[in-house]
Design brief:
The chain is 68% helix and 5% strand. The protein has a two-stranded antiparallel ribbon with strand order 1-2. The protein has a two-stranded antiparallel sheet with strand order 3-4. The chain has a single domain, classed as EF-hand (Recoverin, domain 1, Orthogonal Bundle). With 169 residues, the protein is mainly alpha-helical. The relative contact order is 0.14. It binds calcium ion (3 copies). One calcium ion (CA) binds next to strand 2.
Length: 169
């Protein structure tokens, strides 16, 4: 059995999803990420933005479970993640963007102004809170601003996030 470099990279991403580090990904990891984002941006869980974030986290979890939880025990083990998610993400990276979109939209909303876009610095904060290493998040956020107006919108952050998790750098 040969592990490609690609599969090893995806396995490293497992650690990002496993927010509480207990060895498997489950709903609680997505709630943990949502909670951390709300604290970071000083937003109440009961607010509209807070509720949207938790709904997005649940949709993200359901999408991930649908792709990777092959035995249906509501936990994604490292093996399920590598064997289940890797192949599907590689075949269809857009799908990953789609399941992550409501969560990313809500996360960006915590930092965004009335026009729905955030500054590059705030976008970097969002990525860092989602487990992207800080030294990666800053330059990544800058490159997210594909139209160069100094702000990051959903149309920019979703493909970048999907790229980080699915495609060799
Ligand atoms: Ca976990
Ligand atoms: Ca499972
Ligand atoms: Ca922009």
């Amino acid at each position: 059995m040969v592990s490609s470099e690609y599969e090893l990279r995806i396995a490293a991403r497992f650690a990002v999803f496993d927010q509480d580090g207990n060895g498997y990904i489950d709903r609680e990891d997505f709630n943990t990420a949502a909670k951390a984002l709300l604290v970071e941006f000083g937003t109440a869980a009961r607010s509209d933005k807070g509720q949207a974030l938790y709904a997005g986290a649940e949709a993200f979890w359901q999408g991930m479970a649908g792709m990777a939880d092959r035995d249906g025990d509501q936990r994604i083990t490292r093996e399920e993640f590598v064997n289940g998610a890797v192949k599907r993400l590689r075949d269809n990276p857009d799908r990953f963007g789609e399941i992550a979109r409501p969560f990313l939209h809500a996360a960006l909303d915590l930092a965004a102004g009335p026009d729905g876009t955030a500054t590059v610095a705030d976008a970097a904060r969002v990525l860092t809170m989602l487990g992207v290493p800080e030294d990666v998040a800053r330059p990544a956020a800058a490159t997210l601003d594909t139209d160069g107006d100094g702000r990051v919108g959903e149309a920019e952050i979703v493909p970048a996030f999907a790229r980080y998790f699915t495609v060799p750098e």
